[in-house]
Design goal:
CATH superfamily of the largest domain: Response regulator
Helix content: 40-55%
Order of helices and strands: EHEHEHEHEHEHHHHH
Number of helices: 10
Radius of gyration: 17 Å
Strand order of the largest sheet: 2-1-3-4-5-6
CATH topology of the largest domain: Rossmann fold
Number of strands: 6
Distance between the termini: 38 Å
Strand content: 5-15%
Shape: globular
CATH class of the largest domain: Alpha Beta
Amino acid sequence: MIRIVLADDHQIVRQGLRKIIDSEMGLSVVAEASDGIETIKVVEELRPDVLVVDLMMPGLNGLAVIRQVKQRVEQTQIVVLSMHADEAYVLTALRTGAIAYVLKDSPSVDLLEAIRRAAVGRRYLSAPLSERAMEAYVEKAKSSTLDPYETLTPREQEILQLTAEGNTSTQIAERLSISPRTVEKHRSNLMSKLDLHVQADVVRYAVGKGIVSSGR
């Protein structure tokens, strides 16, 4: 039995996915999560075979979730289910640790195939994504400079997103079970690393990076 965790901030999407997946022999959804921070906690606790995750989620975006899950529960394979077909998104997800990438407008059989392949360590890209194109982008990325975002610690990534979503230091501290002073220290560090100077810069950076949407 392939054990699966679903992570998406839309309940109706999770309900639909669970119905599709649970109807298949050999597949079982063991838990759901609605934000990035909750996703990591659930995966650490249940250690599923496969995590199906959206890229755009509150609290901690999908790319940061992928990175932390691969650091903490290496055996869990990750399938991205996203509306973003841009090859840059796909490449970043694969570089970060995802093994499969499925577009949300794909037929359900694509997701089921991605889950089954991911469970045995095989990569899957749904059409129109091309394995050859991805390999070319990966080769190109190897020679590119390191993205400053990748220099942030997992905690700094959490605080960056929570700040961009409009949370105060006190609210972030309560969410992460740390002190407001610690939040402010991490925020100062991440702003220095990213060459940001005021909180408005943090919001603009997060929107431009695709960490949060402009409508949040």
